[in-house]
Amino acid sequence: MTSGSSDRLTDFSSSLFRFLSTIIFWTTLLLVIIINKLVFRLKVTGRSNLSAISKTGCFLISNHTLYLDPAIIAHAISPRRTLFSALQSTFKIPVIGKYIRFLGAFPIPENNGLGKIIKPIKEALDKGWLIHFFPEGELHHFSQDIDEFQNGVFFLAYLLNRPVIPIILILYPRTLFGFRINRYFIRVKAVIGEPVYAIKNPDSWHSKREAIEEMAAYTHKVMEELIKQEQSLARNKRRHFLRL
Questions:
Q1: Is-contact 188 67, C-beta < 8 A?
Q2: In a domain, 6, yes or no
Q3: Mean pLDDT, the chain, as a whole number?
Q4: What b/e sequence results for 61-73 when a residue is b if at least 16 CB atoms lie within 10 Å of its CB, and e otherwise?
Q5: Whether pTM exceeds 0.90
């Protein structure tokens, strides 16, 4: 939400804000794409899962494993844009706070955060925006073990009847002649998963809380299994290379 406003996530109603945001975002994204290609050799799969709901807004989630995760995700889903949730304290940092607003970030209020943003989130979704959350709640640097999910984004998905699309960020060690070079020298693969919907059947035994928790647990399992599959394939390829 913008300063002094509680009815919208970002000030796109202002023509000046839209103009500056467009220039800053696409300039930043161009630099991000260059970095992702040269440094991380980013590969993106599953774009069709996102294009299948190209005319409607939905939620995006991902594991949080690198400081540059938002940049990688922005690249992976381009040319579509997403609004990124961030801690309210981040927006108090001079220069950075203003900069990430223009990129499309919005703060989560510290007290009763979800309750205060339900209305503006619904309005943004109705306009076709994608809205991103890190359900783990914090960064686990270079970790491929996904921490337990907080239920916030799944509560919003259930309440607003919108799907959640998981984006799984998978890290691979860079190797030379089959041997790992350095733990910080990696390549990244972003996998855009299939939309996940909450069970909302009035005749079902599911309560709202159970449906939300089940949605979170199922999405967590899907993301974990995909990471394990990718890691297993990478290990097999490395063993094959070393046997040659």
A1: no
A2: no
A3: 87
A4: bbbbbbebbbbbb
A5: no
